[in-house]
What does this fold into?
Amino acid sequence: MQFALTVPALEDKIVQKVVVNLLNAIYEQDFLDCSYGFRPSRGQHQALDEVGRVICRRPTEWVLEIDIRAYFDSIVRSALVEMIEKRISDGSVLRLIQKWIKVGVIEEGRLLVSETGTGQGQPISPLLANVYLHHVLDQWFEEVVKPRLKGQAYEIRFADDAILCFQHKVDAEKVLNVLPKRFAKYGLTLHPEKTRLIEFGRFAAGNAKKQGQKPETFNFLGFTHMCARSRKGKFTVHVTTVAKRLRRGLTAVADWCKQHRHDPVSAQQKTLNAKLRGHYQYYGRPTNYRSIWQFYRKVRRIWCEWLSRRTRGRPLTWERFAEILRQYPLLLPRITHTWAEAGSHA
It folds into this structure.
């Protein structure tokens, strides 16, 4: 899938950052607690923590995964401008925003201008994308949908990645039926296969077992979420790294090792440890130790394989590589987030 990537000039970047700070001060008063993407003092892990809290502590039995096709490229610019004009009255600021929204992209030497998309790569693009979904989804779900439901319902969103949690199946099905129509009104399309409703909650595993099936799982922000039981026997949610993300991370490490196999071993160790540290900082959530340990072991094996290719006919045995590891150790896996943050039962 190709996305329109816009690279603004330095002067534009500086002005955009000033405008972003101005708009943040305004829109932070409007944005709802359910959104976590591209907002001050919020991020993926706060969204993941909220998933644990909602599913473990609220009457959640059904989860609706939302997947929007090519979101950033599908935003209808005229609709976005109308949304902004409801909150911003300064003419000069509005003209600047419209100029940035309508900027074209260069593809194969040609300037292309369309009526949709905000052009990823601009400092202001994430905020504008947030404003759009605030109106299209967040506000609509909170003010129009939830009052009409029989039971409780919750939304958790990071940028265009979102899940809706429901107490009752009938409510979830009602929203799933109307959501494509709501999105189509604003030029957005739901992916028919990746947008799905699943039973997920404290009774899901038992109900699946009665039917001779395994309980379903869902992916959110790089983690596969699974129904589980804590050591005390209470319902909880366990997470593991999405398989596709794990493979992608290992492929990136292998490509780097290939390109830098002739660098000094100490320099390779330093960079690999930085990559491992970054992986643990994001994926080191409770219950995900097995996945990050798997990542560590495979990184270790990849490094061994590429170091072996520079020994000129002398195979690097595991014993010799173990000696290298003693001198240049790789960072061991560690959990970097706590159960208290995750909001689940330990």
Q: What stands out?
A: Confidence is low (pLDDT under 50) at residues 1-7.
